[in-house]
Design a protein that fits this description.
alpha+beta; 4 strands; 40% helix
Length: 101
């Protein structure tokens, strides 16, 4: 399993808009992408991360190349609440424990 971490700065005054976008637009996309095991959003001050979990590097690459992913990325960039500085890092997951339900 791999985890992909996308980090961005954002306009903190528009945090609610970003959260709504993540919940209403990004989350359904992640649920539809083959190989996506799960995702989470986290925030502090004006830094946002989206951490997603994937079955393989090929799944990440296919997702990033997909029309639905490119559409969502285009829409979030056009919304204007993100900063210019964004990073992506992919890590191998060595231990994973699902939260107790």
């Amino acid at each position: 399993m791999l985890t992909r971490i996308w980090t961005t700065e954002f306009d903190a005054a528009r945090r609610d808009e970003l959260q709504r976008f993540a919940d209403e637009i990004s989350a359904p996309m992640f649920r539809r992408l083959p190989g996506c095991i799960g995702y989470l959003y986290a925030v502090t001050d004006s830094t946002w991360i989206t951490q997603s979990f994937w079955a393989s590097q090929a799944d990440i690459e296919a997702a990033e190349a997909s029309a639905q992913y490119r559409d969502v990325v285009g829409r979030i960039m056009e919304a204007g609440f993100l900063g210019d500085d964004q990073t992506v890092a992919v890590f191998e997951v060595t231990t994973y424990a699902a939260p107790a339900q």
